[in-house]
Amino acid sequence: NRINHTQKTGHSRNASAAAGDVPVYGVNTGFGKLANLKIEAKDTATRQRKLILAIAVASEMRCRVGRSGL
Predict the structure, then answer these.
(1) Smallest Cα–Cα separation from 31: which of 54, 59, 58?
(2) Residue 40 burial by CB count (10 A; 0-12/13-18/19+): exposed, middle or buried?
(3) Which residue of 6, 29, 32, 53 is most buried, as measured by CB atoms within 10 A?
(4) In whole angstroms, what is the distance from residue 36 CA to residue 5 CA?
(5) 17, 28 in Cβ contact below 8 A?
(6) 25 φ, ψ (degrees, to nearest 5)
(7) What are 29's strand-pairing partners?
(8) Predicted confidence band at 11 (pLDDT cuts at 50, 70, 90)?
(9) DSSP secondary structure string, 12-24?
(10) CA separation (Å) from 63 to 26, 51, 53, 69, 70?
């Protein structure tokens, strides 16, 4: 199916970029002021996981604040 093919292609490109020597913003580099910081290939999976968790926690906190009426 087309969506699965697109997802696999995107994942493959990200994996190649993360393992490569060419800097790709946010894939194998930091963000913002840390954009010039190269993240080693062995550390990219951990970094991506932590980024997803941070976004999830921030989203939950916004939801709780919204429900409390603050």
Answers:
(1) 54
(2) exposed
(3) 29
(4) 32
(5) yes
(6) -50, 125
(7) 38
(8) confident
(9) HHHHHHHHSSS--
(10) 26, 19, 15, 10, 11
DSSP characters over 24-38:
-TTTTB-SGGGTTPB
Could you tell me the two tokens for 44?
């990219």
Sequence-distant (6+) residues with CB within 8 A of 41 are: 18, 19, 20, 28
Q: Which two tokens stand for residue 38?
A: 């190269």
Q: What is the pLDDT of residues 50-66, one digit of tens each?
A: 888 988 888 877 777 66
Collect all residues with Cβ–Cβ distance below 8 Å to 20 and sequence separation of at least 6.
Answer: 28, 41
pLDDT of residue 14: 77
H/E stretch holding 45 = helix 41-68
